[in-house]
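I hope you will forgive my troubling you with a question about protein structure. The matter concerns a single protein, recorded as an amino acid sequence and a row of backbone structure tokens. Please examine both parts with care and let me know of anything in them that strikes you as inconsistent. Here, with my thanks, is the record as I have it:
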Amino acid sequence: MTRVALDSNILIYAELEPESAKGKRAAELILRAAKDGVIPVQVFGEYLRFIQRRVPAMFEEAVKQVSVYQAAFLTPSTTGAVIASASEMARDHGLQFWDCVVCVAALDVGAKVLLTEDMQDGRLLNGLRLLNPFAPANDEAIEAVLAD
């Protein structure tokens, strides 16, 4: 299996909309990627902030869920080196800085694909392919990377 990283929107859909089509798809992706997958620490921060702001009553449960994810996934930290590389990536590619932090942290542990709804679908950044897992056109590509 190609090493796959997950963005915060995957966690958010899985946890907040488990019965929706996106929630079910997100949960499936989490289960399939857990074997060798990546969730950068920055993603946990984004996920927790979203929960804290939108559904504060779920915050404590979300904190516990992060511990579960940390046990199942590689969770690269946001280090000084990640910040420096993300700064360069943001400058060179005109992307949001925090998105670049996620990308660089994922790349640093060997991820080749980042599943994200929020970034430029199909773009290749320093060897990391961005794929929107909710776009039906990407189903075949995602199946291929998760089936390796």
